[in-house]
Amino acid sequence: MGAYILRRLLLIIPTLLGIMIVNFTLVQFVPGGPVEQVLAQMQGGGDVFEGFSGGGNDVAEETFGSDSDYVGARGLPKEFIEELEKEFGFDKPPLERFFNMLWNYMRLDFGESYFRSISVVDLVLEKMPVSITLGLWSTIIAYLVSIPLGIRKAVHDGTSFDTWTSAMIIVAYAIPGFLFAILLLVLFAGGSYYQIFPLRGLTSENFEDLSLLGKMGDYLWHITLPVLASTISAFATLTLLTKNSFLDEIKKHYVMTARAKGLSESKVLYGHVFRNAMLIVIAGFPAVFISVFFSGSLIIETIFSLDGLGRLGFEAAVARDYPVIFGTLFIFGLIGLIVSILSDLMYVLVDPRIDFEKREG
Hints:
InterPro entries: MetI-like (IPR000515), MetI-like_sf (IPR035906)
Structural class: mainly alpha
Helix content: over 70%
Subcellular location: Cell inner membrane; Cell membrane
CATH architecture of the largest domain: Orthogonal Bundle
Pfam family, one: BPD_transp_1
CATH superfamily of the largest domain: MetI-like
Largest sheet: none
Main location: membrane
Shape: globular
Membrane topology: Multi-pass membrane protein
Number of helices: 16
Number of domains: 2
CATH class of the largest domain: Mainly Alpha
Distance between the termini: 12 Å
């Protein structure tokens, strides 16, 4: 198992390299880079993409000629543009910039944000608690609810309990997370009905003045609605996955043999069926965690005014803040790969008979 883990860890390097190559290459073809962002803001704060709509500018053409590199360079001296390019590092060819970035990443130097005057590492660490809160709590709650519910649905397959719970699950799955988040705000966060939960943030303004229990209560009070909105769609997948997995195992001969020996139903389910049935559920842990941690975080963070990694990545993409874009992509990819390795370790923990080294051989 040690050799397998070592190989998986070594595979992280080429995987991350591939991620960075693809994203760096794509960025080179995206219009409206950071230089144009600055120029657009200096020339009136308009949208940097307005210049691509075909509206020309006589002043820019007179100053630079009709083939100027930047549509935002409207009447600004060419020396200023060149100085701006040098400041952002665009005076060097793309290949050199890419290798410089890799060399810096090897030294764990992710650079500094173009527009925030703060290092990418400090920026990510500042936003990380919000995303970890949403991802971790949502995943834990989804598993704590879905696994027992899925087992009970499998045991009572075809009964009225199975029917009405399935209907509820399907309805929950059909509701978009952002729509459910808005519904929660309207109902419980000072919308048209009740003011029970806060509207924004992870903590109150007087958080530092509270006692330990008060801080815990305040934290849970703030995360209740965002976590519920993040978890709603995960219940359906996990519950039905657990149910179907248990149904497949229950029909196998070893279960019939265990029952014939006189074992109680609980011992059959949790002593024999559970290990085999839970393998596929555990395999889905990385997908559930990563989907909540990354995919759903942007919308939920925006609706509940939470300043996390989702909003950070989106705002960096809009502003063309390349150090933040590449740094967050690198960190996201690294987290995803590590979680995948942890999933394999959980496989072995649940069923020690699994040997990944023999499977690879």
